[in-house]
Amino acid sequence: MNLNKILKNAFLVILMGLIVTACATKKSVKTTTTTTETGSSTTKAAETQKADPIEKLDALMQGDVYIGSDTVGELASGVPDRVFFATNETILTTASRETLRKQAAWLRQNSDVTVVVEGHADERGTREYNLALGERRANAAKDYLMTYGVSSDRIKVLSYGKERPVDSGSNPLSWSKNRRSVTVKAN
Amino acid sequence: MRKKLLFIYIFIYFLKSGVSYSLVEIDITRGNLDPLPISVSPFYSDKISEKKIEGNLNIANLGLEISKVIENNLSKTGLFNTLDRESFLQKPDIAHLKPRFEDWALIKSQVLITGKVSSKIINEKDYIKIEFKLWDVLGAKMVDGFSLTTVPTNWRRVGHKISDKIYERLTGESGYFDTRIIYVAEEGPKTQRIKKLAIMDQDGFNTKYLTLGNELVLTPRFNPTNQMVTYLSYFRNMPRVYLLNIETGTQEVVGDFPGMTFAPRFSPDGKKIIMSLAKDGNSEIWVRNLETNIQEKLTDHPSIDTSPSYSPDGKFIAFNSDRSGYQQIYIMRSDGSKVKRISFGKGIYGTPVWSPRGDLIAFTKLHKGKFFIGVMRTDGTGERLLTENFYQEAPSWSPNGRIIIFYRETKTDEKGEGFSAKLWSIDLTGYNERLVQTETDASDPSWSSLLGN
After folding, report:
1. Is B366's CB within 8 Å of A125's CB?
2. What are the start-end ranges of the H helices in B172-197?
């Protein structure tokens, strides 16, 4: 019993640490992206505060959006199959829009292909809300594909909420890989 | 599907409730630090009955097994201290006839339960008759009891019915032991969980799996008036709300909606299902009347509106919405009018579930990276957090509104291993947190109403 309690406490402290650092990185990036011109000084200030493990994360996450290539598959050669989202967000990042434009171009060239856009959330939310959030993310991707000339009847959306994580870890990096929408060929 | 409800009450009360005032009563509105000492004397059988029952059920001493069911139920409430039967001085058959109260007072027992099991044949079919008595040791008299006759396979339910009677008599509240819990049984790696609907008795026995695990199933919820269940199934990759009759196994899609329907829950009269429809990136709350097949949209907002739950009088609906920017709890009239936010504390709030008593709303809260199960009054005041952990959600009330069952998931290690999901229960007081035993990993529990006869 006592050991359990100690372990639990130690674990909670670690968790708190992770969350605090996650929040810190998110904030620093927000300031840099919103103040692009004057941002250089803020970036530097934020950078000096960062410890080693966070720098490592920085290569894979921008804010808390995943920017690495692990887990990313291909819809077709040179066309990534997925885009990633910030916590609780459905906004498409610059990189996501680039990916979706590639998908749209490929879909325009291959007009017989239909797709399912699968929307996912990380495990840090209630099940039902995450089902709605996944649906919202999938539709954000679908809308963008439609803007670039793919007709809506070729795109189905399917939300899995948090039911199908691609990474089973319980840490900010794993969660960032799981907040995604994936375009999958349906035929 | 099973359990023909063949209880035949022979006589209900030896004594009318409320006559005795010498009996110790338990206040269950506070955490109980001084549980009531109670002795459950093993129920006894005559030799002929014992043999007959063993032939029917392959259980050598059914009376003892029934008393174990009762003991287990009572001790898990945290309100009772069930005394070790090794310390009992008096033999079960004599105690049932007329206890020598001094013997029971000597071991500091304040309440004594005795009983008798006998076999019976009615219309050439085997039955068991179970009789029980509740004795006030200090007042030196019998205060309650009943006897009932049923098919032998129903014996655990008899134990639950007796437990309910004892609980009612000693706490003044209705019991919750003769109930079942429906949940999602889980297995397999976190990235490819296999999920099945499962149902079990409240004490973890008689588990039955209702789906095969071929498609993802989520959030089963009982109809409060019968044995129907509503849940979400990904059958044919079309996530839709389904209705399942657990007696017959028949199921059907609820309504005709142009998108994913989810987060279903019955109205208190069991005639409607309230749920969310997600379409074009927007989730709204809808209600469908199962008798008239009329479906109606209740919310109209570009935000996510989901997890609806009726008040027990059916006049209001609690739900969560992120219309303020983050998930918060709102209530509205059941026609969708007068939407009002009620959660204003720090953090985000979800999964509101109205207490069967009507005075409280249970919820899940996320604050500073931790998940809490809590309760608040229906106007949002009096927030009380009962338990915190890495991840937990989906509170469901016991039918008497005294206990909340929910599920909790563990954090995985650095390799992404060590994931588990389990059911837990906690008293409304915030005390008596317990793991609820399930055969597999489990989530999304829903507690049935009392089963009746």
Report:
1. yes
2. none
Q: Are A185 and A75 in contact (CB under 8 A)?
A: yes
**Residue range A151-187, pLDDT digits in tens:** 999 999 999 999 999 999 999 999 999 999 999 999 9
Residue A182's nearest CA partner among A162, A159, A154, A163 is: A159
> Between B347 and A13, where is the model more confident?
B347
What pLDDT is stored for residue B227 in this prediction? 85
Residue B2 inside a domain? The answer is: no
pLDDT in tens, A132-161: 999 999 999 999 999 999 999 999 999 999
Do the domain assignments include residue B202? yes
B281 with B235, same domain: the answer is: yes
Report chain A residues touching chain B, CB-CB < 8 A: 11-12, 15-16, 18-19, 88, 90, 116, 123-129, 131-133, 135-136, 138-140, 143, 158-160, 163-170, 174
Residues B74 and B215 in one domain: no
Mean pLDDT score of chain A: 80
- What is the pLDDT, as a whole number, of residue B138? 93
Q: What's the mean pLDDT when you consider all of chain B?
A: 92
Collapsing DSSP to helix, strand or coil, B437 comes out as coil
Q: Which residues span the domain enclosing B368?
A: 180-447
Whether B53 is covered by a domain: the verdict is yes
* Mutation for testing the A interface, residue in B241, B368, B411 having most A CBs under 10 Å: B411
pLDDT at B295: 96
Verify that B231 and B137 share a domain, yes or no.
no
> Which residues of B fall within a CB distance of 8 Å from A166?
191
pTM of the predicted model as reported, rounded to 2 decimal places: 0.87
Q: What is the average pLDDT across A81-107?
A: 97
What token pair was written down for B96? Answer: 């049932």
Boundary-marking domain end, from B151, B171, B191: B171
User: Does residue B3 fall inside a structural domain?
Assistant: no
Which residues in chain A are contacts of B190 at CB distance < 8 A? 165, 168
Residues of B in contact with A14 (CB under 8 A): none
Chain A residues lying within 8 Å of B213, measured CB to CB: none
Q: How far apart are the CA of B96 and the nearest CA of chain A, in angstroms?
A: 40
HSE, side-chain direction, 13 A CA sphere, residue A56: 5
What are the boundaries of each domain within chain A? 2-51, 66-185
Inter-chain contacts counted by CB atoms under 8 A, chains A and B: 114
Rounded CA Rg of chain A? 18
Contacts (Cβ under 8 Å, ≥6 apart) of B196: B184, B185, B209, B210, B211, B212, B213, B217
Same domain as B190, residue B158: no
Number of domains within chain B? 2
Give the model confidence (pLDDT) of B163-189 as tens digits: 999 999 999 999 999 999 999 999 999
Do B268 and B410 lie in one domain? The reply is yes
* Residue B21 clears pLDDT 60, i.e. is over it: no
**Subunit contact B307:A131, Cβ cutoff 8 A:** no
Q: Is the pLDDT of residue B8 over 50?
A: no
Q: Say if residue B398's pLDDT is above 80.
A: yes
Residues B96 and B194 both lie in one domain: no
- In this model, does residue B125 exceed pLDDT 60? yes
Structure tokens of B181?
Answer: 């819990």
Which residue of A lies nearest to B415 if distances are taken between CA atoms?
Answer: A169
CATH assignment of A66-185?
Answer: 3.30.1330.60
B329 and B356 belong to one structural domain: yes
Residue B346, CA distances (Å) to A42, B328, B343, B367 in order: 29, 10, 9, 7
| Beta-carbon contacts of residue B77 (< 8 Å; ≥ 6 apart) | B167, B432
